[in-house]
């Protein structure tokens, strides 16, 4: 049987690297690497690690946006981004969960719980790549909670407790259940709106909101990160509740009687 050979031109086209988006992707990896050092190094500092992870999330948002704006999206860039996300938001976040949540005991159970988070994150990334390649999901929708949000969900709990690890058995148990819940949300079929595609009609409002968020992150990071994270985590439920109310308030909603068949509505032109 003849072996298929990949021509050099075709191979170079498949592995074409877009410089500017790739810089932000590698910055994402570098920040995740720095977070890992602060988690397993001699001077363990959970808060500094969380700030690095948060900065990684921002870099992760920039690389895709820049690739779309410069029209330099490529399959190679998608694969590189997924591998970096697996490290920064999967491996590093799972190490954070293990080092912080199970520092005072139950290390064996903690290793399993943290591994569940890591496994769910990688499964979520693999499913995202399959959906993206098949183009079966709209560009403004995520199926399952994105892994950067899942990483921030773990970071938010640490910030709420000011970096102090849980000491009681009940606290460790509740944290374990929370990590499992976040893991299940990643591999669920719940639909999340993508923030990368969110553009307001008025660009000034967009810039104002972006400046406000960045300012709050710089001045009040320990409060802003949990508030933004938990708001996005619960966004599908909020969209469902308020969407249902708005549909009920519409003229053609459930409260309006149906018009007789064959009679035209005069409400429109």
Characteristic key phrases:
2 strands; disordered C terminus; two-stranded antiparallel sheet; 69% helix; single chain; Four Helix Bundle (Hemerythrin (Met), subunit A); 269 residues; mainly alpha
Walk me through the topology.
Elements: H1 8-14, H2 19-40, H3 46-69, H4 75-101, H5 107-134, E1 141-143, H6 147-160, H7 169-186, E2 191-193, H8 203-219, H9 221-233, H10 235-249
Antiparallel strand pairs: 1-2
Helix pairs in contact: 2-3, 2-4, 3-4, 3-6, 4-5, 4-6, 5-7, 6-7, 6-9, 8-9
CATH superfamily: CDP-alcohol phosphotransferase transmembrane (TM) domain
What's the architecture in CATH terms?
Answer: Up-down Bundle
Strand % is under 5%
From the 3D structure, determine the CATH topology: Four Helix Bundle (Hemerythrin (Met), subunit A)
Strand tally: 2
Overall structural class, as computed from helix and strand content, comes to mainly alpha
CATH class: Mainly Alpha
Mean pLDDT: 83
Summarize the structure in words.
- By secondary structure, this protein is an all-alpha fold.
- The chain has a single domain, classed as Up-down Bundle (Four Helix Bundle (Hemerythrin (Met), subunit A)).
- The protein contains 10 helices and 2 strands.
- It starts with 7 loop residues before the first helix and ends in a 20-residue tail after the last helix.
- Residues 255-268 have low confidence and may be disordered.
Summarize the structure.
With 269 residues, the chain is an all-alpha fold. 69% of the residues lie in helices and 2% in strands.
């Amino acid at each position: 049987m003849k072996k298929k050979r990949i021509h050099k031109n075709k191979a170079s086209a498949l592995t074409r690297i877009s410089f500017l988006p790739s810089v932000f992707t590698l910055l994402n990896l570098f920040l995740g690497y720095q977070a890992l050092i602060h988690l397993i190094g001699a001077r363990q500092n959970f808060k500094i690690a969380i700030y690095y992870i948060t900065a990684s999330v921002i870099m992760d948002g920039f690389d895709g946006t820049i690739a779309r704006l410069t029209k330099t999206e490529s399959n190679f860039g998608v694969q590189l981004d997924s591998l970096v996300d697996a490290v920064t938001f999967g491996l590093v976040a799972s190490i954070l969960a293990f080092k912080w949540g199970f520092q005072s005991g139950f290390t064996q159970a903690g290793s399993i719980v943290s591994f569940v988070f890591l496994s769910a994150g990688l499964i979520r990334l693999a499913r995202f790549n399959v959906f993206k390649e098949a183009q079966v999901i709209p560009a403004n929708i995520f199926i399952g909670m994105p892994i950067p949000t899942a990483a921030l969900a773990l970071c938010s709990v640490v910030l709420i407790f000011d970096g102090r690890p849980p000491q009681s058995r009940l606290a460790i148990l509740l944290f374990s259940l929370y990590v499992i819940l976040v893991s299940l949300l990643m591999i669920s079929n719940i639909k999340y709106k993508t923030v990368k595609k969110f553009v307001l009609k008025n660009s000034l409002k967009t810039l104002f909101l972006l400046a406000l968020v960045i300012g709050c992150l710089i001045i009040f990071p320990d409060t802003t990160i949990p508030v933004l994270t938990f708001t996005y985590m619960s966004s599908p439920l909020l969209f469902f509740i308020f969407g249902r109310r708005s549909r009920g308030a519409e003229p053609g909603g459930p409260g309006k009687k149906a018009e007789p068949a064959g009679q035209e509505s005069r409400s429109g032109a």
